[in-house]
Amino acid sequence: MVAGTTGILNMEPKADIALIGLAVMGQNLILNMNDHGFIVVAYNRTVAKVDEFIANEAKGTNVIGAHSIPEMVALLKRPRRVMMLVKAGAAVDEFIEQLLPHLEPGDIIIDGGNSLFTDTIRRTKYVESKGLLYVGTGVSGGEEGARHGPSIMPGGSPAAWPHVKDIFQTISAKVEDGTPCCDWVGENGAGHYVKMVHNGIEYGDMQVIGEAYELLKTGLGMTPDEMGAVFAEWNKGELDSFLIEITSHIMTFKDADGQPLIDKILDAAGQKGTGKWTVESSMDLGIPITLMAEAVYARCVSALKDERVQAAKKLKGPAEDFHRPRQIIQGS
Questions:
Q1: pTM, whole model, 2 decimals?
Q2: Which one from 71, 195, 226, 276 is the annotated catalytic residue?
Q3: Quick check: is 202 catalytic?
Q4: For 224-243, b where at least 16 C-beta lie within 10 A, e where not — what string?
Q5: What digits encode the pLDDT tens for the residues 131-173?
Q6: Is 226 a catalytic residue?
Q7: DSSP code per residue over 213-270
């Protein structure tokens, strides 16, 4: 039941942080915070999702559901910390405008999405002009990382760091000596810039994996199971890559009919923009990052599926004439 105005005013501010956006990443980050003893207020633009989350994934936890922004804010200890995990772009600006009338000087707005760093620079200046503090932070590790320990890259208003440091470093992943995979990156859009470059590097990693797959499949004629074994073997050494690990798993994963799922996946990759932004920034700075640039262009080409099908009818490409003893690749 949505609280009335009087009820909201009388609410006890007992929550450490609020999180807006209950997609899988948001839900997992909330549950991670709850596991570490932080009280979190959950809010979503579609409020029915709040009740659904509280009744299911967050059942039995200390997570509090809010049905409005005023209710959410009223539940927060000062300085209030509100984190958004929403789609980059206009949605971030819209939520900032909705939050500002309900917050006060010293409160902190946090953008945990993949925002363009220049947008974060603009938003930091704007929010600070209202007397509040702003943090733009990269959150890396996907759904699993959000649930059990992501890498977190915060930047923005330096005065905000002491108020978010404990939460962020507690819930983040840790290296072997216990050092948290989270520290203050710098002012303005520094946090989102680091996350952008991180994603650009990942574009390059995935392109290399894609090309290795093509060589194994087309050049050596390996089956998906054989390729899965090769990727798994490669990952036993110092490579030790999460991307290689999940590649080995998808190679051997079977669809409901028992056939390899990899053979049914459309060869068309999408992109959310971070890789492209990294390449654009490199051009502005005059710093070549050719692997990442080619990875972005490869995704662009892959997305032109209809054009590639038509072109393939006229352009057959080189004959497959790649012969290398399979045992060299497999290390047997």
A1: 0.86
A2: 195
A3: yes
A4: bebbbbbbbebbeeeeeeee
A5: 999 999 999 998 999 999 999 999 999 999 999 999 999 999 9
A6: no
A7: HHIIIIIT---HHHHHHHHHHHTTSS---HHHHHHHHHHH-B-TTSSBGGGGS-S---
